[in-house]
Amino acid sequence: MVRSQEAKMDDAERPGPSDQLWSVFEFARRYRLAKREENRLLMLYGPTASLRDLLANASRHSLMS
Length: 65
Prior knowledge:
The chain is mostly helical. It has a domain at 17-57. The protein has helices at 24-30, 35-45, 51-57; strands at residues 21-23, 48-50. A two-stranded antiparallel sheet has the order 1-2. The longest helix has 11 residues, at 35-45.
């Protein structure tokens, strides 16, 4: 018995945890981003983006500065 290609997913095709869509608002709250940084991410991606993109493009400023 042969499985159809539609039913079989390779590991490379499966969405990983970093590929899931996140709310930019939730991401900013969870990672304690400044409102200015949250607005920048909203302009860049809209209300949702992949966790990978958010982590790669978000920046937190040091609280010690």
